[in-house]
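Lab notebook, bench 4. We co-purified these components, and the gel suggests they stay together. Before we commit to crystallization screens, I want a quick structural picture of the whole thing.
Request: model the full complex, all chains together.
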Amino acid sequence: MINKSSLCQQAVDLLKKRIISHALAPGQRLDEAALAMDLGISRTPLREALKILSAEGFVHIKPRRGCFVAELTPGDLEEIFPIMAMLEGRVAHEVAIKATADDLKRLAALHEKLEKHAAGHDVDRYYEVNYVFHDALQELAGNRWLQHMIGDLRRLLRLSRHRSLKLEGRQQESLAEHRALMDALRRRDAAAAEEIMKNHLLAQLVALRSMAARQEAA
Amino acid sequence: MINKSSLCQQAVDLLKKRIISHALAPGQRLDEAALAMDLGISRTPLREALKILSAEGFVHIKPRRGCFVAELTPGDLEEIFPIMAMLEGRVAHEVAIKATADDLKRLAALHEKLEKHAAGHDVDRYYEVNYVFHDALQELAGNRWLQHMIGDLRRLLRLSRHRSLKLEGRQQESLAEHRALMDALRRRDAAAAEEIMKNHLLAQLVALRSMAARQEAA
DNA sequence: ACCTCCTAGCTTGTATACAAAATAACGCAT
DNA sequence: ATGCGTTATTTTGTATACAAGCTAGGAGGT
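Here is the predicted assembly.
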């Protein structure tokens, strides 16, 4: 058993995974007794886990009425993406100033992977590496609170299965934006890096809108 | 008794107050049994409350070692203020665009109160109204997620008793910045409003720094 | 005298049992 | 048949009891 942490923490981790993977559907009611039985634990640690998930926005607890998996409306996305754009823009800004030549090399290596997966039309791996890339940037920015807030929002965004890269042409755009970002970082142009990152996020929002519109039409 | 909510929620609210007011000192260990006894509840709802407070950053839970009141280091302030500056800047931006003439009148009324308390050297009331003013702005911006995140950070900041307005001259500066903000809002100059608000927050950070330096010297 | 190991206690983590409130089901009256 | 009221059941909220890990203090050895 690698898992030596508390049952509460284990429950938090597992439920997050299930919520993000939509094994637990948005809006679904969570029955404490049934869920506890399913996880093989008692209600006490499970309830503590649900309180944590509630504070982090994954579920909503309606007093005396139960616990429900959170759902993100299109309106939420419209509100969250601009915030993310600001925060990640700030990250890019800091990285442009702080990163060492070595750091930039590591980023470049990740970017190369992105190019490769894009060329191979491997959307899943592209997403994966993209995540790692953004994560690495946050690490380099070295602002723990910024990192914390972005992390919260990122996890939340995953509640909605937005896969905007599936929109034709979007992956190429995304890649071009990443290229421009790497350029700005190498030039140590903080203002440009921030602006590019901002627009990168906002472009994702635009892509999501058109996907939603397309789905609406169908 | 107006208070009909769960014991857990009551505990959360009360503990927040105690932590913010420093009735519970930063770094202090919270003994579950003793605290539960003190609050007149059992450990079960108290533990749920502590989990929530932990997720919101008010306390840190070290597994099997206990729960400790969080403390903000000067480093944390240096990280948080720039984020706040961005977020509140964004709020100002949105308000400049969205606010109706009526909204602006309400804000102006609040600003008048600020001027009055400043003239009367009533620092406490100035802080109070200042809080209401910023809160009103967030309301007008109408971005619930932005509001949520700013709210979290604001409460966190109150962990450190930073009273930068006590620095001589700072209150007058603060007032001037508020005046400039109102001007920009009336002119519907979103970019200017955003910039002014950003600098308003960053100026607070600078004031805090010099207070810390002064305290260091003493 | 100091370090180590072991034990005793205290504190956190978990399970179960109980209380209270909300939902569902049933019967009655219209 | 339908709507309302009452009761039964389910489910959340809370308390208590139990298990397991950490801390501290003392005994024994070097």
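Chain A has nine helices and three strands. Worth comparing against the SEC data before the next meeting. The domain at 74-217 of chain A is CATH 1.20.120.530 (Four Helix Bundle (Hemerythrin (Met), subunit A)).
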